[in-house]
Amino acid sequence: MPIEASQLKHLYPLDSLRPEHLDVVAREAEPAEHAHGEVLFRAGDTDEVTLYLLSGIVSGDYPDGKCKDISADSLQGRYPVGDLMPRRFTATVQSLNALVVSLDRRFLEKLITFDQLTRSSSFKLLDKHPDGNRWIFRLLQNNAMRKVPAGNLERLFARFEEIPVAAGQTVIREGDDGDYFYVIKDGAASVSQSGDGDPAVVAYLVRGDSFGEDALLSNSVRNATVTMMKAGKLMRLGKSDFSELLKQPAVEWINPAKASVLVRQGAGVIDVRLPEEFDERAIKGAVNMPLYRLREYAVDLDKEVSYVCYCNTGERSAAAAFILTKLGFEACALAGGLSAMVRHRSKA
């Protein structure tokens, strides 16, 4: 059952959004019918979901015995239900049924931030054509962007540079040094890799897709060629800006002690070095997935499992953690690489 923007426009702070931005929220909203007695969340829970009550009544029971009822028809019902983290009360449906919509809290916060930024006359990226901002909405939905603070968005958008591209134009070439991170504002592109033979297309990119981060993350050369299939426009970000605004907040670093704990709890270990390096020495239980083939191998990974990525120093593992996060996995990078883990285990 899809949600219409008209069903959300009376809610706080959604009522302040531009119509086209509220439409985006409506498309992302996940509605669910809940029966009497169902628990929406419990006191002490921590999650990434914002809930709105569209119909029905929910009771909030606090650990100290206090209780309050929240009706969708009341003023309080226009606010998110118990959105402070950790949850302060247990929310239980009291009416015969209740219609509740859930939204990704971080995406919503970034969308509200973007909406507020567009109110400034100096904001240069707002396209007055509703379809013209689709690349921004896709970018904000990127899993790697979830960890980027909303406060970085203004600087991010201010530093993006728009460039026109023609059909058939090669934007980045395999083997070249990395200089920019790109997002497709309009158009389409193909990604090809030569590997050990003739170049082969490994992916297609459309509006809102990003590319070029691998070389910037790992401080290495480009591992693929990206060619425009359709003329359009690209937004690009320089290497230093990418590192400051996207790489640092998006990549989670952990020390060897924390990595050991995660592995004991069931995390997978991915060695992103070359097979020759892996064969010489590797962490016990690790799976070898060379960085340049990580996207290809990622289809076999379990999204219910978190992953620790490592290399020799941390450069390649930072790129791997970013890529996996972008693909929807929980991933982190081992600080100090293999040497740090060896030293940790020798002291244990």
* CATH class (first level) name of the largest domain: Mainly Beta
- And the CATH topology of the largest domain? Jelly Rolls
The total of helices stands at 11
What oligomeric arrangement do these chains adopt? single chain
Give the N-to-C terminal Cα separation: 55 Å
Range of strand content:
25-35%
CATH architectural arrangement of the largest domain? Sandwich
Q: Give helix and strand order, one letter per element, not per position.
A: HEEEEEEEHHHEEEEEHEHEHEHEHEHEH
How large, in whole angstroms, is the Cα Rg?
23 Å
Find the CATH superfamily of the largest domain. Jelly Rolls
Summarize the structure.
With 348 residues, the protein is of the alpha+beta class. 28% of the residues lie in helices and 29% in strands. The protein folds into three domains: 5-103, Jelly Rolls; 120-244, Jelly Rolls (Sandwich), CATH 2.60.120.10; 251-347, Rhodanese-like domain (Oxidized Rhodanese, domain 1, 3-Layer(aba) Sandwich).
What would you note in describing this structure?
With 348 residues, the chain is of the alpha+beta class. It has three domains: 5-103, Jelly Rolls (Sandwich), CATH 2.60.120; 120-244, Sandwich (Jelly Rolls); 251-347, Oxidized Rhodanese, domain 1. 28% of the residues lie in helices and 29% in strands. It has helices spanning 19-28, 105-117, 134-141, 153-159, 213-218, 239-250, 256-264, 275-280, 294-297, 315-326, 337-347, and strands spanning 30-35, 39-41, 49-55, 57-61, 67-71, 90-93, 97-104, 161-165, 170-172, 180-193, 200-205, 210-211, 225-238, 253-254, 268-271, 287-288, 306-310, 330-334. Strands 8, 9, 10, 11, 12 and 13 form a six-stranded antiparallel sheet that branches. Strands 14-18-17-15-16 form a five-stranded parallel sheet. Strand 4 (57-61) and strand 5 (67-71) form a beta hairpin. The radius of gyration is 23 Å and the shape is globular. It starts with 18 loop residues before the first helix and ends with a helix. The mean pLDDT is 90.
